[in-house]
Amino acid sequence: MPTTTPGLALEARNLVKRYPQGRRKPPVTALDGLSFGVEEGTVFGLLGPNGAGKSTTVKILATLSAADSGDAFVAGFDVRGRAADVRRSIGFVAQKQVSDPMDTGLENLVLAGQLHGMGTRDARSRAGDLLDRFGLAAAARRQVKTYSGGMARKLDVAIGLMHHPAVLFLDEPTTGLDPEARTEMWAEIERMAADERTTVLLTTHYLEEADRLASRLAIVANGRVVTEGEPEELKAALRGDAIVLELLDAADVDGALTLIGRSPVFRDVVREGRTVRARTDEGGQALPLALAMLDAERLRVASATVARPSLDDVYLAHTGRSFSSAHSEGSATDQATPTIDGPTIDGPATAEERAA
Ligand SMILES: Nc1ncnc2c1ncn2[C@@H]1O[C@H](COP(=O)(O)OP(=O)(O)OP(=O)(O)O)[C@@H](O)[C@H]1O
């Protein structure tokens, strides 16, 4: 019998999952040997383009789906043989609101506790603690339909925590919230993870969120983990700086892309709308060179910046596309940027395409 690695609250080992697509089509490979481990009491971020396999991974870990092969453990339990124990050990905060809008916040929490087998007294006491913790005490006896988006989202997280789960799955906890509510939610999640020693698996469409909350993160592409580490470590592993050149005229962007891409000084050269991004060893020296090259071809620049590597650069280096372009609108496949000398991932952008 396989066993989990000591000290890990979540572990995925070589997970493979294929979805059948009917008789004439080959199956979609959603997970292609995906592995990662999450230490107890930490926040771990799972990032990746649409269709990379994040939801499939979370579903397998939460026992909502079974892998074709590989092993997965949650709170020390094998998801295959100990599904009931896994379910007792986890809280799951999905993107969709789970609270009943016609009930009060308190009623929602108490019901969630009772569903997990808590007695009414315990459930009320725990609900009171969580309402305090999430700044919802004053609204405890109001129907949830009167809550703001941020308040309703906090209540959802509190519902997921009612039964003191060892592991909390947070699927895009701040999507749809305004910046203020988002910042507030981040503070609550940080505090919650520290106070309760809850292990959190966070999937998010906001790099800033992963950067702020996750002590480690994994970037998933084509059903595999393509890189994993602490955000700062991942950034430091990228040599050099990023330069970003915004062209005055959209018609000049292709020319600039070719010019910069041809120079050995620059690498990972990509187009993003009206801008060209590239990596280079010494940004301060390379930027004047890039400007001189563009000027010689009469390609006019509206703005030019040098920046230390960001998490977006890490994402770009490992997936061949920038996070913002992959997540701004529609699917990542639609948003893929042409890359010169850049991508580290071979083949099509999604498992779906690969199987096609
Ligand atoms: N039930 C299903 N039947 C067929 N294919 C599926 C099913 N669920 C997922 N897939 C496919 O498996 C691949 C991985 O999907 P998954 O939802 O895990 O990705 P994701 O990283 O969570 O994407 P997103 O960010 O869009 O939620 C995709 O190609 C997807 O189309």
Automatic annotation (TrEMBL):
SMART domains: AAA
Domain ABC transporter per the UniProt entry, residue ranges: 10-247
Gene3D superfamilies on file: P-loop containing nucleotide triphosphate hydrolases
Gene Ontology molecular function terms on file: ATP binding; ATP hydrolysis activity
Biased composition (Polar residues): 322-338
Top-level taxon of the source organism: Bacteria
Endpoints of the signal sequence: none
Protein keywords: ATP-binding, Nucleotide-binding, Transport
Spans annotated as Disordered: 322-356
Protein name: ABC transporter
Provenance organism: Agromyces aureus
